[in-house]
Amino acid sequence: MSVYVTVGSTGFDELVMAVCTRQFLRSLAARGFRQLCVQCGSSEDLFTPPSTESGAFGIAIESFDYTSSPQRFIEQADLVICHAGTGSILEALHSRKPTIVVVNHQLMDNHQSEIAQELSRHGYLVSTEASGLADAVASGAYSKLIPYPNADPQPIGEILDEETLI
Q1: What gap in Å lies between CA 76 and CA 95, rounded to an integer?
Q2: Distance of CA 59 to CAs 78, 123, 128, 154, 166, Å?
Q3: DSSP E strands: which ranges in 51-116?
Q4: Parallel, antiparallel, or unpaired: how do β-strands 60-64 and 35-39 relate?
Q5: DSSP 8-class letter at 110
Q6: pLDDT of 116-136, one tens digit each?
Q7: What's the CA gap between 10 and 111, in Å, rounded?
Q8: Which of 6, 12, 111, 163 is the most exposed place for a label (fewest CB within 10 A)?
Q9: DSSP-derived secondary structure for 126-162
Q10: Are 138 and 30 contacting, i.e. CB atoms less than 8 angstroms apart?
Q11: pLDDT, tens digit, for every residue of 65-77?
């Protein structure tokens, strides 16, 4: 099984450092994960997993800074861990992948926290902070999530028709 971690188009130091810890790798291994792919963004210099630990836990690890096709990695993953940006969240949920969202409290207005908490409250994803990521994986709560409903394109079509007087 594989995990894809993404920080999105910028960086998220706390998330990148959290996925490098022995506790996180141990949690992945205990849940049966054998591959970890991390998109680090501008936090790539902080991605320093303990090399002997990754081998000891039987987890193959790869990382890169950016990708123009994140959907490819999401589709290959059994679990997606992402920052709480709306775009990343929706990509994961629309792919029907179990998703753990890590809120970046360094942002000014903390809108990520509100979005993540609301979607978590409905059972679509697990929301945590970087410091709680290993425990979120270990709990296995991501395996009990409700699939995110498909969007209904009808309302937007009706609005466009109305606005363009068709």
Answers
A1: 10
A2: 14, 28, 23, 44, 56
A3: 60-64, 79-83, 99-102
A4: parallel
A5: -
A6: 898 999 999 999 999 999 999
A7: 16
A8: 163
A9: EEE-GGGHHHHHHHTGGGGPPPPPPP-SHHHHHHHHH
A10: yes
A11: 988 888 899 999 9
